[in-house]
Amino acid sequence: MTLEIEVKLSEVEIRLKDQTGKIIAKDGWTDQNSLSRNLLVRIDRLLKKNQFRLDDLREAHYLAASPSYTAGRIADIVAQGISSHLTNFPKALQ
């Protein structure tokens, strides 16, 4: 399963996709300069609501759609951090 994070102006959407690219769950909201506070909480909530765990993910991506440098960097760093965790830690240690 893949996590996608997309930020367009003040609109944020996170999606969980299966191996075929089909969206199996999503969440969206209007961000008011609070992306750094809300993004990880929303990702966690989306996973729990759909009975998934972080280690069910294969990868995470940020879709570059934001003209805001700061929002784009926050979303990109979160996606990179999740991907790094999934790549660098064996499932047995999680």
Report the CATH C-level class.
Alpha Beta
Rg calc: 13 Å
Strand order of the largest sheet: 3-2-1-4
Helix/strand order: EEEHEH
Tally of helical segments: 2
**Separation, N- and C-terminal Cα atoms:** 17 Å
The percent of residues in helical segments reads: 25-40%
Largest sheet: 4 strands, mixed
Secondary-structure-based class equals alpha+beta
Q: What's the total count of β strands?
A: 4
Poorly predicted tracts of residues: none
Number of separate structural domains: 1
Concise summary:
The protein is built from 2 helices and 4 strands, in the order βββαβα. It has 94 residues and is of the alpha+beta class. The protein is globular.
Notes on the structure:
This protein has 94 residues and is of the alpha+beta class. It has one domain (2-93): Nucleotidyltransferase, domain 5 (2-Layer Sandwich). It is built from two helices and four strands, in the order βββαβα. Helix 1 crosses helix 2 (69-88). It is globular.
